[in-house]
User: Fold these one by one.
Assistant:
Number 1:
Amino acid sequence: MKKTGLFFGSFNPVHIGHLILANHMTEHTDLDEVWLVVSPHNPLKKKSTLLNDRQRLMMVRLAIENYPKLKASNIEFDMPQPNYTIDTLTVLQEKYPKHKFALLMGEDNLAGLHKWKNYEAILAYYQIYVYPRLSSKKVPEELASHPAVHYVKAPIIEISATQIRKDIKARKNVRPLLPPEVYQYIEEMNFYK
């Protein structure tokens, strides 16, 4: 049984913060691997700022080439929208019965977990690995102390993909914030300008 952490995001673009966290989870927890699950366009988000699904998946694949414990997943691309985490978990469990899936999320997301569709089922059947965020959101005690919730002492990374896109548009140097392969790809494709 392979223990697989799921790291959901739009990865627009994937940056070193994502890699630091995903890699930390494979090296400092009992997870065997982490899948970066590229979320398709969220119908509630303005389309203009989001690169198409395939381009974002391509950037994730480029970013993790040298990380054998990290994988890119496009599982949500063919699922009906809007999509809920519980539905994705169900599809993954059916498709990959030899995997034991867990969720990775920032403390800020955990604070709002009780608003998620079927969050009780998520807590009943899946482990949640929580990384710290500089957030003032208070996590409800029943979530913070839930047996399915594991706090991981991970580096606090506050790199924003939104800020990276703004900086690229403003012709600022974002090279240190991106994996070199992703920086190269964004340059070649002239993205976010």
Number 2:
Amino acid sequence: METPWHTEDGISVIYKDYIVVGDVSPLKDNILKDIEPKLNIDEELALNTLKKIKSLKKNNYYRP
């Protein structure tokens, strides 16, 4: 799934009930509190991407 944030061609992977979001959400709070990551090409685009991910209501995989 396309998830632009710090590059226009960013992607996330959906597998069953999970979505691997990578750098779109470096911290769990990015998605839980709608906080765009600081390294982005456009704050509004990054925030819209987070909202798109959140709307899928999947379990997010966060990097440790």
Number 3:
Amino acid sequence: MKLLLFIGHHKVGSTSLQDFLWRNAAALLRAGILYPPVESDGHARLLRQALDGPDAAPQPWNARESHNALAFRMLFEAVNYPVPPWHPDLPSVHQMEVAIRNQIRIHQPRAVILCSEVFANFGAWAPGLIERIGRLFPAAEVSLHCTLRRPDQYIAAWHAQRIRFGEGVEPLRAGGLEEYRGTIHLDYALLLAPWLKAFPRARLSLRNYDEVVAAGGSVADFIAQSGLTFPAGLAPERRVNPSIHPALLEYARCAAARFPKAKAGRFGDFLISVSDRVGAPPRAQVELFGARNRSALLSAFAPAEAFLGGLAGRPFFAQLSQVAAPRPVPEVEAARAARAPLLALLRGAARAAPRPPDPPGSGAFDPALAETFIPFVETLEIA
């Protein structure tokens, strides 16, 4: 039996890959590829999927991102790392392991896929968890799948993700970069080396995110790198986990500091929904770091690049020097230019007829909530 472990990184298309694998879990299982659920809701939904086909309705995170749930629970039991609230009512790791073993025993798959960007944290927080995964599959032929992004692009995307989820952070143009030193978000060896040590005979698929994009995205690239024959007729990849435009990040960051988490989260969803309607420059043209922090980032990443180059036998990020080159539009300038269009959209939302609450993530904005954020956007000091 083959074991394919997708171990991250964050912000490299992992959510789209998890969504694809989950929506096709029943079809994959019929082809001998197990993408195992780990708790009762996932098992129930997999049965319904087997009976009725892929479910178009939004799926709970415990089902769609079941191996994130597994990884978070493992970290919690090992080092008391908090399980986020979007993964509620999880069983113990022991029960999750029993569930996976039973699925393997009953279905006798030719391959098992575990896919979680949260696995990227194991080496830094609890390396013994990597060995625990190995003990769950003692006779498997293992392949490790890891996608890494150029550090400036990665940290910008990860910082934006943290803002979207309401974390209190400084801007990257100020002190926000410093907290990434000594973490997997800047030290890629800290992420990857413990997995290579625990699985010394594993086949390593180490991918540059630019190569993944050129190959058609995370799903197409994973299929190509997997060495497996996937069945025909699978539900296609969907775009999931969209991000806030960098021109609007300061509004979301400051809202997270001023408003309750749920209210700031709905505002973040609204910003995502209007990100392409505020007349902002292309995302890649907005500068979040500033020249000084970019230079510091390039210097701090040098050991990680040397590590990756040793694995790849060549420079891993061919255009790494571009990390130090600022983008043409400073974040502050882009945010100020977006204020008037954003206010117009908020005022339009405030004039809309009241309607039943929409689920989080829909981008719909209650008129009363829009009224709350109009003075916030009008008076926010952006410097």
